[in-house]
Amino acid sequence: MNKKKISHLNTKNDEIHIKIPYQLSYDWDYFLSFQSKRLIHSVESIDGITYSRNIIFNDIYGKFRIFPDNKGFNIFLSKNFLPVLPEILRQISSMFDLNSNIALIENHLSSAYPSLMIKKGFHIPGVFCPFEAGVRAICGQQVSVAAATNLLNQFTNLFLRVDQYGNTYFPLPSDICKDKLSKLSTMNAKRDTLYLFAQWCLEHDIKEDIDELIAVKGIGKWTINYIKLRAFNHSDIWMGGDLGIKKVIKDFVSFDENKAIPWRSYLTIQLWSHL
């Protein structure tokens, strides 16, 4: 798992319990606060310090939950993920940005922006699935976080996947049909973009072809960068077109985001935290 060591593995009962050491700074409260404003209620939840969500991975259905302790992170996975354990741990590690040297990044940002208060332990808050990240981005185009999250939940509930036990999952691109999208409380243009994005995902590898998304009507650089940032844990994404970022940096006489290279994603996260 990309240089991460598993200090403990237990397959008792119906869950796999993995403990991953992590000694660098991690502001878990920030992640919980960030995600709580963007929760898909039928798919993910926060209970105390524990984040949980249902996932589909390599056609396997199940769930995971994660919470920190003073030595790292505890991850509990459905036991049916055991055949793909290394791969799914890489995905979770990416989602929670567990491979970054956050101390090095924070030192770089503090030196580059002495007038900006750099908060400790702010990691990239990821999204488990690239398709979900794209839907989140489209729902969030030119609207508030609250409005975007409301639309996201509407979308998810229209196309929910349900397993034999009644557990609910974020839909796959193949689940999206144009007729149901008419029920979304949004503009026709945004409904069309959601449909076209789903169709595009059926024909492309989103990770390999991400820059080709620009050809889809209604998708621009901001949406592509959002997917790169939150789904692919890209360290150097500058979300300068974001309304929130624009609001924060207007208070600076001059602001040069290039000083943050190669850590502009973390600069973006820091600026979002000042909203």
Summary?
It comes from Pelistega ratti. The protein is α+β, with helices and mostly antiparallel strands and 275 residues long.
3D shape:
globular
- Any guess at the CATH architecture of one domain? Orthogonal Bundle
Report the strand count: 8
Radius of gyration: 19 Å
CATH class placement of one domain = Mainly Alpha
* Overall pLDDT metric: 94
What's the helix-strand series? Answer: EEHEEEEHHHHEEHHHHH
CATH topology of one domain: Endonuclease III, domain 1
First-last Cα distance: 34 Å
What name goes with the CATH superfamily of one domain? Hypothetical protein, domain 2
Total number of helical segments?
A: 10
- The level of helicity is 25-40%
What structural class do the secondary elements suggest?
alpha+beta
Spatially, the strands of the biggest sheet line up as 1-2-6-5-4-3
Largest sheet: 6 strands, antiparallel
The poorly predicted ranges are none
Q: Provide the β-strand percentage band.
A: 15-25%
Can you put this structure into words, describing what you see?
- The structure is a single chain.
- The chain has 275 residues and is an alpha+beta fold.
- Among the domains are: 8-84, DNA-3-methyladenine glycosylase AlkA, N-terminal domain (TATA-Binding Protein, 2-Layer Sandwich), CATH 3.30.310; 130-232, Hypothetical protein, domain 2 (Endonuclease III, domain 1), CATH 1.10.340.
- Helix content is 38%, strand content 16%.
- The chain contains ten helices and eight strands.
- The protein has helices at residues 28-36, 85-95, 102-112, 130-139, 145-159, 178-181, 188-203, 221-232, 243-249, 264-272, and strands at 8-10, 15-21, 44-47, 50-57, 60-69, 72-78, 161-162, 168-169.
- The strands form two sheets. A six-stranded antiparallel beta sheet has the order 1-2-6-5-4-3, covered by helices on one side.
- Strand 5 and strand 6 (72-78) form a beta hairpin.
- Helix 4 (130-139) packs across helix 5.
- The chain is globular.
- The mean pLDDT is 94.
